[in-house]
User: What shape does this take?
Amino acid sequence: FLFVMNYLSIMTDEQVLIMYSGHPLGLFPTRVDRSPLVVITNGLITITNAARKKFGTNDLRGKIFVSSGLGGMSGAQPKACQLLGCIGVIAEVSEEAAKKRYDQGWCQELIYDLNQLIARIRECREKKLATSIGFVGNVVDVWEHLANEKETLVDLGSDQTSCHDPYQGGYYPVQLSYDEAQQCMKNDSTKFKELVHESIKRQIAAIDKLYERGMYFFDYGNAFLLTAKHAGAPVGGDDGDRSIRFKYPSYVQDIMGDIFSLGFGPFRWVCTSGLATPNNVLEQYNNNLKWIQEAENAKLVVGSQARILDSDQMGRINIGLAFNQAVRTGRLKGPIILSRDHHDVSGMDSPFRETANIEDGSAFCADMSVQNAIGDSFRGATWVALHNGGGIGWGEVMNGGFGMFLDGSIKADDNIRHMLYWDVINGVSRRSWSDNRNARQTVERAMAN
Assistant: This one.
């Protein structure tokens, strides 16, 4: 109450007071002509940095990363391994999906035999070759085979099966072939669920063995450990059904959380002309430089002429203004649409992923994503969206996004400065309230500017 009264007593006509569940977030710049004075939400519930954390280096040559999934989202894993210079081993039960990624060039090799896979891992590690290997088969077989090897042949591990929906095709049990699993899922859902639980417990057992030998494992935020807990696997999270403290950390708790706290996240732009577009904080900009230099050669465009870049608040604003200027002068042949991933600094509340490293007790609150959509809507977004369930499961996440149309106008410049500022500082401020040092320093820099 005293915080609120203090903010109300000092706020100006050019500020808006943002109220989260239980406390005010703060005073933020706003647009005098078109915004409310107060916005209130209440009671809303919802690989390179891994190398730095584990090995103290950016050099991943000779390091082996094992995971699963070559689908629409998980299919980015082998390409990331290739760009980072490590050896990526990604298992996929669907031969069709694996071949698609191979044909697209996102996966450099396909292997069907486990013994051949192990031999290839050894060869690549010895020669420090950068490659992405798609194993057509079940990842549980891969984990168990690696666990039974005398030497440790994996440095980093994760999982990107769709465990937010494990009983409807998101997770395929190792006991059945791909086709058998399809039939069992359709004809005997109870049996299928039992097999999923048995399979995931075997997977955890193999991962545990490798972890004890030095492998670093992290949850990708796909509800893998949550599903393992429901299956009865010993993964922790035992201090209540809604616990987010598992034996292994989520990658937001251990890796991405600090990056979000710096204000960096996946920022997108799309060329509406359909023509191709040229392709701590210093480390993030160095990552971006490598990404920009190598993106064109990586053949990453699958659909529209779109690009994505991890950038912070000032970076996004400057990029947006530069794009709008290029449209205004005719350097770009058509308008630009700005957007971002929902997996971002402010756009998603989920205690099992994006807000897993917020430790002030508010990890289960969904104010941030809702406030983001509301705030974007009166600061210049062309459209906003608010969703539930993205990537983690219904009732486990609230997420939202926006689109901003840049037509070269001065008004669009104003929209860029106001909306992109809020779209980042909202999430950084929430993390600052939870006493995150990176977030507090980022807020201080933003206030100074």
